[in-house]
Design a protein that fits this description.
Methane Monooxygenase Hydroxylase, Chain G, domain 1, alpha/beta, globular, binds magnesium ion, binds adenosine-5'-triphosphate, Rossmann fold, six-stranded mixed sheet, Helicase, Ruva Protein, domain 3
Length: about 375
């Protein structure tokens, strides 16, 4: 079947999925979302234009993530039904939500796999790693930072840094996405925040990582009542942490909209660390990380590539690499030789990278960088 045929198929499936979804007939909608995603993934293999391929992939991911959401919804509904009438139904629900948030297995990334960002790494070390390693050294006036904010343009390593730091230490890692708390639990998010901090105290040492913290810590006033209450709760909980000497809990927030963060929250994040676009050596290193284990032609020169991708974020470069290293595979497939295991893919060339760079534009504009620089000057911890 042709790429267009597959895309048409996907669209038909998606329309069916949407309609069932709208009628709240989730169990019917799920397989159609998955079919639509599958058809798109097949179409991507035939798609030569990387930009189109990327948008198809995004769509497929959207369908998959919606199908997962629906599955969760159904599951929760089932649980609720089976525990209906029980007194601690509510508590169970909150605990269920929290257990989704706690990451018990260690994130499998180390600080060494993050390029550049030396100041940020050192600050996180002083704030999290050292105090947990040697609590005896961090008493009295030498108290560790309790609140840290990582801010900067999207795709430059904020989430990566938080995870790598958590992997460095023996601590319970709570990974919270502020926007998903709000969207899924708005009515109860106040209680959810309280339970989260209580649990972090029970299971300490703990790291509470709040991604997209601007969604929870945005400017107050003129909003939904539930929203106001959850903000107050977060402020109170953070205060509780900083006033207690023996609690070994640190809150790390990440945002790419620091200007949206309310002054009261800003003050509670005592250390505010700018995570900027990668500089030249960091870009060269990111090319290295993202081509590991792949056969590269001798002429491939990461420094030249780093030079011409000034202004690209880490995730932009990761995308360039993904695109470039797929090129030989795509050629094999187009030649109809993918089934033949005796034929090896050719090495990735400098031109493959250059073509990918031409197709992928930097995702952050100069104006946005200006905005971060200004905020950093005004509020950042140098
Ligand atoms: N400094 C870096 N070193 C290595 N890889 C990086 C770096 N920065 C970004 N990347 C790549 O970009 C991807 C996205 O990074 P990450 O999720 O940490 O960005 P973020 O700053 O949290 O972005 P957002 O604001 O959109 O959440 C990573 O998975 C990694 O592949
Ligand atoms: Mg992130």
């Amino acid at each position: 079947m042709s790429a267009q045929g597959l895309i048409d198929h996907a669209r038909d499936f998606a329309i069916k999925a949407y309609n069932f979804d709208k009628e709240k007939n989730y169990s019917e909608a799920i397989p159609y979302y998955l079919d639509a995603a599958e058809a798109l993934m097949k179409a991507i293999k035939f798609e030569r234009n990387p930009q189109v391929a990327r948008s198809l992939k995004k769509k497929a991911e959207m369908y998959i993530s919606r199908s997962k959401e629906l599955r969760d919804l159904l599951e929760r509904k089932k649980e609720r039904r089976s525990s209906a009438g029980s007194d601690d139904e509510e508590e169970d629900k909150l605990e269920g939500a929290i257990s989704d948030i706690i990451v018990t297995e260690k994130p499998n990334i180390t600080l060494n796999e993050i390029a550049g960002l030396e100041t940020a790494k050192q600050t996180l070390r002083e704030a999290i790693v050292l105090p947990l390693m040697r609590p005896d050294l961090f008493s009295g006036a030498r108290r560790p930072w309790k609140g840290i904010l990582l801010f900067g343009p999207p795709g430059c390593g904020k989430t990566l840094l938080a995870k790598a730091t958590a992997a460095e230490v023996e601590a319970t890692f709570f990974n919270v996405s502020a926007s998903s708390i709000i969207s899924k639990w708005l009515g109860e998010s106040e209680k959810l925040v309280r339970t989260l901090f209580e649990l972090s105290r029970e299971k300490q040492p703990s790291i509470i990582f709040i991604d997209e913290v601007d969604a929870l810590a945005g400017a107050r006033g003129g909003e939904h009542d539930a929203m106001r209450r959850v903000k107050t709760e977060l402020l109170t909980s953070m205060d509780g942490l900083s006033s207690s000497e023996k609690d070994r809990i640190v809150t790390v927030g990440a945002t790419n909209m620091p200007e949206a963060i309310d002054g009261a929250f800003r003050r509670r994040f005592e250390r505010r660390i700018y995570i900027p676009l990668p500089d030249f050596p960091a870009r060269a290193a990111i090319y290295g990380f993202n081509t590991k284990g792949v056969d590269l032609a001798d002429e491939v020169d990461f420094e030249v590539l780093a030079e011409i991708t000034d202004g690209y974020s880490g995730s932009d470069i990761a995308m360039v690499c993904r695109e470039a290293i797929m090129t030989p595979i795509r050629e094999l497939d187009m030649a109809g030789a993918i089934d033949d295991v005796s034929i090896k893919a050719r090495a990735v060339t400098q031109d493959d990278f250059i073509e990918a760079i031409e197709a992928i534009n930097p995702s952050v504009s100069d104006d946005e960088i200006e905005k971060y620089d200004q905020w950093n000057e005004e509020f950042g911890s140098a």
